[in-house]
Each structure stands twice: as C-alpha cells, then as structure tokens.
Specification:
By secondary structure, this protein is an alpha+beta fold. It has seven helices and eight strands. Pfam families: RRM_1.
C-alpha cells in the first residue's frame, strides 16, 4: 500500500527504506556486526547491519538493525529467522530510537503466544492478547467499522485489511453529502478483528488521514 501510494510522488524508494526494508532484532550482547550479517545474509542482500550500543560504555545493548535492499527480503527474514531474535520491522528513522527501544523491550519481554492461529506471533505486541488479565474492556466482535474523512477505494482498503488473516469481506460505502469514507470489515474470528483494530486504528491511510476503527455488533457472544 505504501509503495503504490508513493509512486506518483516519486518517493517510493524512500518509503521502502523507512517502512519496509529495515528490521529490528534482539541479539546476544556478544554479537559483532559481522556476526549479525552472517546470521541474516541468507534471507537477502544486506545493505548494512548496525548494533545499538550504550553511549557511555560502548557495550552492546543486545539490539540491532539489519537493512535489506528489498522489502521482500526483510519480510522473509522476519518470517523465517529464529524466534529468539524477535524480529520486527523497524520504526522510521524519524521516531526517537530510545522510545522505540523501550517499547520493543517492554513488549518483547511478554510471554510468547502459545498455539495461536495467526502468523503474527513474531509481533510481540500481539502476544499480549494471550494474558488472561489483559481483558479487552470494550465489547468485541468479528466485525469492524472503519471511518475516514476521505473516501475509500474498495481494492486498496481490502488489501490493507487483508494483511490480517481471516478477512471475509470489505464493504465500502460513501456519504454523497460529506464525501467521507465508511466501510464495514468482517473477519472469520474475533481474534483477527481484535488484531486488525489494534494495528489499524489511528493508522494514517493515506498519509495524513487517520482511520477510526471500532467494533460493530455482529450477534456473536463477545465473551468468547
């Protein structure tokens, strides 16, 4: 979606660099940059590797970046590398690295999701849904309402929400008076809907336009 949107502006390589080609990994503190490159070169052409170090002592923090030449290579590394690396896509460089490291540490230390049915267990934040004490306070369902101040294009919105497995349908509607966007999204399971809401509520699509994603009653027992 990012790449398709940016072709007209001519900035699609920049967006690939910022959003899709850098991964963030947890590594042993003994690793050098060469060790990191050696472990991840099997997934694609690496542009650079870097290890995050303590600014005072110069010691490794046990975290690093690997940047690939292609988004597909970064995606393959995230999917196929050992789960102990807890690989995720890195935040854009314009976000404070300290806050990103803090968020990553606090999420990555949570227990792994056992026996999950979604291929997102490498995303540490998704694993928080496993915790019994982390109950969703609002009523949940398999159906979502998506609202935007800009109109949607059916194919683009479908592609965005189809990134979460289990999408059953995407029904885009338009208010002729306000020209705003409205859509109803339904997944095969409540878990998929919860994850989609968690990841896409507040997401800027297109950039500068935030999506509002809320649950819609679908007649199912939300306690499940």
């Amino acid at each position: 979606v990012f790449i398709a949107q940016s072709r007209a502006s001519g900035s699609h390589r920049d967006l690939e660099d910022e959003e899709l080609t850098r991964i963030f990994v947890m590594i042993p503190k003994t690793y050098t940059e060469e060790d990191l490159r050696e472990k991840f070169k099997m997934y694609g052409d690496i542009e650079y590797c870097s290890i995050i170090k303590n600014k005072t002592t110069g010691e490794s923090k046990g975290l690093g970046y690997v940047r690939y030449l292609k988004p597909s290579q970064a995606a393959r590394a995230i999917e196929e590398c050992d789960r102990s690396y807890r690989a995720i896509l890195a935040e854009p460089k314009n976000k404070s690295s300290e806050s990103f490291e803090h968020d990553y540490y606090s999420n990555a230390m949570r227990p792994e999701l056992r026996g999950n049915t979604l291929p997102f267990c490498m995303q540490p934040e998704f694993c928080s849904f496993e915790k019994a004490e982390t109950r969703i306070q609002e009523p949940v369902s398999k159906r979502l309402s998506v609202v935007s101040r800009l109109p949607f294009i059916q194919e683009q919105l479908f592609a965005l929400f189809d990134l979460v497995p289990g999408l059953e349908y995407c029904d885009v509607q338009r208010d002729p008076h306000t020209n705003s966007g409205y859509a109803v999204i339904q997944y095969s399971t409540a878990a998929s809907a919860i994850y989609a809401k968690y990841k896409l509520h507040g997401f800027e699509y297109p950039p500068g336009n935030r999506l509002t994603v809320v649950f819609l009653e679908d007649g199912s027992d939300s306690s499940e």
